Amino acid sequence: MENDIKAVVSKAIRKLQDGGEYQKRSAAILANFRNTIGKDLAEATNIWPFFFEQMPTEYLSINGKETFEERAVYSTLQLYALCMQGSSSKVLEDDGFKGSIGKSIRFGRTTENGEALDRRFNALISSQTYEELIYHLRQLLKIAKSKNQITVNFPQLAKDLFWFQKGNQRSICFRWAQDYYTGVLNNTKEETTNE
Question: How many domains does the chain fold into?
Fold first, then answer.
């Protein structure tokens, strides 16, 4: 199922990037996704036509309550829209990128923002709820993309968000921390050696 979530997100992003029938509307669709930040899917009526067109029937709610699949795809597309705002060359979407969102955020770390980014990353991986996790992800991606070009595998992020909701919070956050801190420690050693 999680591979299908990756395929759904990958297909939606390709539609927004490649244009085709969405070429004239992709900027408006992305703006609508940014405008839904902080809202439940049930309140995000402006994105429903595009969103539900992407979703397989088996992922859709039958009782009016968002499914884990709907939430994971919705949150990922919101984060994608946020990252594409402004200079789109600051965030590269690459579903072949090997690494979690932890590695992506690490690429946005600089000597100037390192301590602040580390604190926010620690808050992210300590998140107790899905809403808290998404909030911290938004903040981290904004900071990371403001300093450096970063690459994000949004389909993999959707898969991680799905499994986070299914009770695998610790394993998801542990993998993100491995990807983030492995590079941070190596970069710190290199900086110390070079001084």
Answer: 1
